[in-house]
Amino acid sequence: MAVFQYHPQIIEKYPAIQAGIVLGQAANQPTPEALKQAYFAEQEAVKAQIGDTPLSEIESLAAWRAGFRQFGVNPTKYRSAIEALLRRLTKAGDIPSISAMVDIGNLVSIRHRIPVAVFDMDSSNHAITVQFAAGDELFTPLFEKEAEHPEPGEVIFIDGNGLVAARRWCWRQSDQSATKPGTQLVMFVTEALHPAGETAVAQASQDIKALVETYLDGDMLTGIANARQPAFEK
Fold this sequence. Notes:
- By secondary structure, the protein is an alpha+beta fold.
- The protein is built from six helices and ten strands, in the order E-H-E-H-H-H-H-E-E-E-E-E-E-H-E-E.
- It has helices spanning 8-13, 33-50, 59-70, 81-92, 100-112, 197-215; strands at residues 2-6, 18-25, 116-120, 128-132, 155-158, 164-167, 172-173, 185-192, 219-226, 231-233.
- Strands 7-6-5-4-1-10 form a six-stranded mixed beta sheet. It has a four-stranded antiparallel beta sheet with strand order 3-8-2-9.
- A hairpin with a 5-residue loop joins strand 5 and strand 6.
- The longest helix has 19 residues, at 197-215.
- It starts with a strand and ends with a strand.
- 45% of the residues are buried.
């Protein structure tokens, strides 16, 4: 059964898209101290590596900016998740710890400079599909209760229940899809559009798998989705 897939129209318009998927059983929890220390150490390392380099000059971020423009979104008004994270890190100095699963996703995201989404899969037995929005779908922003509609033509993640799990591709996740204290079945999705994207998502997936298995005693499997293989099946 497919658990993550790209609609053919996405593949046609974005043939360079690469995704790495890490799926499995793991109990979400407050971040263990050893993981928290590794997370903040990674932040310091990334700040040192970036230095004074403008974020717009980082190849992977520039590719997401171009991708956003292709579906009509201003990437400086709506920043990709990885650009928002690195912007927070370089301007505020740190990214707060939230939970073990989110911290793992953010740690790997800033390490490889690519977006990492973390989905609670306990309530869904269907694939998440990346597709263009019709505009009548429902999206409930994180920590909110009122639903809204995506703009027609924007890239969305939509689940098998017909709910939008993420808007503007990797801009913002829904409240329903976010991991919770009781999350047991989780899916991490790493994505890239730049030329070295295939290598980046593969390395990121292996890092996520290792971190989840080390700190959360998880049992994880990995896979890919791209133009050659648009769906990941478990």
